[in-house]
Amino acid sequence: MSQPKILAFSGSTRRNSYNGQALQIAVAGARAAGADVTVVDLKDYPLPLMNEDLEREEGTPEAATQLKQLFFENDGLLIASPEYNSSITPLLKNVIDWVSRKAEGEIPLQAYRGKVAALVSASPGGLGGLRGLVHVRSILSNIQVTVLPAQIAISNAAQAFDDEGQLKDASLQQSVEHLGKTLAETVSKLTS
Fold first, then answer.
1. How far is CA 87 from the centre of its chain?
2. Which residues, in sequence order, are CB contacts of 99 under 8 Å at separation 6+?
3. For the whole model, what pTM was predicted?
4. Runs of H (alpha helix) within 8-156
5. What is the tens place of the pLDDT at every residue in 23-66?
């Protein structure tokens, strides 16, 4: 089997984000399963709001081109998605939209076709960001991404993590690591 290549990112750029911490745990699971994981911080790729007039007049922003290249270079997506008002964050939606834009010589949604994604969320609320994951799953599925059925929503996130960014609940820690492992194994099987 080939070494799976996975792009990992969080829909939050907040310092000490719960979703960033959850992402790192899932990344560790994917790496332990042999994946080559590239972790990016979306604050390093500042983008204006997706706007076709801006795109036509000024071209595709350089950050969008760089992100799209990372999508092309990886077969799996490991996404930690915060929940804002029961839905996806504007940051994450904007990234998805810019990367979806068709450049000359590309087929529609080329950066997403054949990708496999795993989703995790963490929220101070009781549902752990679960309502937002429904929207992320729907968006990704509609743009040709296969989303793993398993997902993790970490509730009461303000109390869930220890000072080292690990989950206090050993079973939950294992589940998040297993999510990363499952993504790595699935991508490996599909790309062999």
1. 15
2. 64, 67, 68, 71, 111, 112
3. 0.96
4. 18-32, 52-58, 62-73, 90-100, 130-142
5. 999 999 999 999 999 999 999 999 999 999 999 999 999 999 99
